[in-house]
Amino acid sequence: MKKIFVLFIAMLLTFSLVACKDKATVKEDEKDGKTTIRVVYKDEGPSNPVAQAYFSNLEKALKEDEKIDVKFELVEVPQGNYAEKLNLMLFSGDIPDMIYFQGGDQQIAEQDLLEDLTPYIEKSKHIKNILQPYNEKRLNNYPYLLWIKPLDSKTPVVRGDWFNQLSSSKELMENPTIDNYYKFFKELVASAPGGGKPANAVTVAGDITELDFIFEMAFGINQTWLKKEDGTYEYSKASNKEKEKLTFYNKLYNEGLLDPQYLTKQWDTKEKAFYDGETGVIVGTSGKVIDIYNGKMTQVNGEEAELVVLPPAKGESQGFAPTDITKEPRGIAISSQSKHKETVFQILDYLASPKGQMLDRLGFEKEHYNITDGQIELTQKYYNEWYAKFFEPSDFETEKPLKTPLLSEPAMKSQELAKEYYAEDNSFIIPEEYVSKWDAMENLYKEYATDIITGKRPVDDFEKFVKEWNAAGGEELTKYANENIK
Amino acid sequence: MKVKAIFTRIRKDWVIYLMLLPALIYFVTFHVVPLIGMKLAFQDYRIIGDNEWVGMKHFEVLFSSPAFFDVLKNTIIISTMKMVFFFPIPIILSLLIIEVRNGRFRKYVQSVVYLPHFLSWVVIAGIWISLLNPADGGVNVIRNFFQLPSLDFMTSKDHIRWVLVFSEMWRSAGWDSIIYLAAIMKISPSLYEAARIDGATNLQQMRYITLPELTGTIVTVFILNLGFFMNAGFDQVFNLMNDSVLSVIDILDTYVYRIGILNGQYAYATAASLFKGLIGVILVLGTHFISKRLTGKGVW
């Protein structure tokens, strides 16, 4: 028996040696004289024929226009949470040359595995010219991710046929105070323009973050850390302004204006409630997401239901929540271990050029667009399926004129409003030693806020929350904030 | 000599051992080899270069986190509730299924109760959220019929743990009853025959033959389940969680997922998992030896 046991242990150790070998690998890179660039990108794996076609077109275009001879090797990421699966892959030592992150990048950057993009951008031909002010600030703070897209603020929308039937609509658009928003919500539910619908005025997916995009700044919460009269900073969620905001949300909830089931709503059930007319207003990311909402809404309820984008509520200040400039929330990174860092950046720079933009923004000719009479005619497939994989600078102009715009009118309006109300936040990256406390503090806030809104706790319990929040690490973090916010 | 006997037996029944081989390879590859990765709990992981030994650092961070004891408490409460209220259900269900005399109807019942096991928790969460909806969910419609007020089970701190227990019951009771059904099938029919000749009723046969014969299986399953005591059900909690009930259903696994996996702190996550595993081993061994002493039956 002992011998069998020893044999088993020996086998185990052999297995472990095999398993422990080969930690970080940089896959080999020259095929048929071409430079192989390994790319990992969400939903753009080798099993996706559209991704294959896109990168194959990009290969041809790079060779033709820039004499860059590369072969893209797309890396498949298992199904599930992309950030989680990607990090597991990277932590196992498989590090592609070009990496798209959607969270989880900080841990990789901390291990010096991402290239500082500053020198590349400085000598770029196109990228440096299309950077937005918020991109520049984010890159200054965190030079590893590149994501040149319009602001991703969220904007509220309502279907146009209902909006036009309400008497409070005009006043809301002219003077979107919190009171006028309240009146609009009230009338939307009371007059039920959809014949008994909507059942509630506004719904959100799971928590109040989306609602904050409409109201937060009106209550004076214009930054994560609010400057007090004595010049010190306090955390906005533990301030009196937050208490006022929660009191208002509680009123919306009690009167049935805020969806009573918002806590169990997911993004898909939220959208369904909107298209089915169960709810009047939802909040979506400006630009392409509003475009998709608009497309689906008009498809289900006819052209007259085209969406109307609502302005942010006006009060102490006005805007769709302050924009975080600590770092890009997502974006493209280059591996510091790559042998082809220069080439990868040249590819990115090409994608920012007018020719690269044509490829990235419009999709495939004869599929996503046709050229007729010297004009670019976008197909329905473009509107339903295509989205730019890389950059979307706002001042993009096609070589030939467009017959129909890239985005629908409501989508463009949402982008305009997001730009108009742009305000910077003063949040900072939570230091590693506070991460677990921060998690506990955030959970404490979420639960108190939810209980106050849904009436499970009186509003006065907010003081209790502030005390508990400070004890859970808030005091320490506030001290850190006061020492570090410039 | 003993080794020689073992090899002789393997040679004699080599086909059976060959059939065992895939399972053995699976367990060694996916359950034994990864044990070596446990050392990560004592290291700071570096993707490039050597990991740094940090001793008990990650355990200290784990035990000093104020949230850790809250999630540990939730894990123990939820697991205990499942153990107490869910564990007997598959046994009862198997006893009831075996009493169904019509063969086709029995197969139908079995299929229906097995079915939820094949649904993912994402789907089950959707079903239960609809079922418990305070406005038009089935449960509240029934409550209203009996003049009882609607309850928002999903956002109620008093009810959500029960939702976990009952949804687990709905999903797994049928599937878990298979092992007991197999054990019941194994009981010699002559015992029932003799009991019937002596005039025993169905209930008496169940009480004096089936249940005592099932004791060994029940004890084994119970002890093995204890090994997973600290797994209060990640997928289930993750899909049924909302901001209103965070403090009562946030368990060790969801905590580790947020702090360890999403933040890329794999060493920290490994430390928490090792702690969980250690408790599981202690529970399994402890119960095994206690059971051996009290009933003479254990896992081995």
TrEMBL record, chain B:
Location in or out of the cell: Cell membrane
Keywords linked to the UniProt accession: Cell membrane, Membrane, Transmembrane, Transmembrane helix, Transport
Ranges that cross the membrane: 14-36, 76-100, 112-131, 177-194, 214-234, 266-290
Domain ABC transmembrane type-1: 72-287
Membrane topology: Multi-pass membrane protein
Highest taxon of source: Bacteria
Transmembrane is among the record's keywords: yes
Main location: membrane
Gene3D superfamilies linked to this entry: MetI-like
Record flagged with keyword Cell membrane: yes
InterPro entries: MetI-like, MetI-like_sf, UgpAE/MalFG_permease
Family to which the UniProt record says this protein belongs: Belongs to the binding-protein-dependent transport system permease family.
Entries under PANTHER family matching the protein: BLL4140 PROTEIN
Protein name: Sugar ABC transporter permease
Organism the protein comes from: Cytobacillus citreus
Lineage, opening ranks: Bacteria, Bacillati, Bacillota, Bacilli, Bacillales
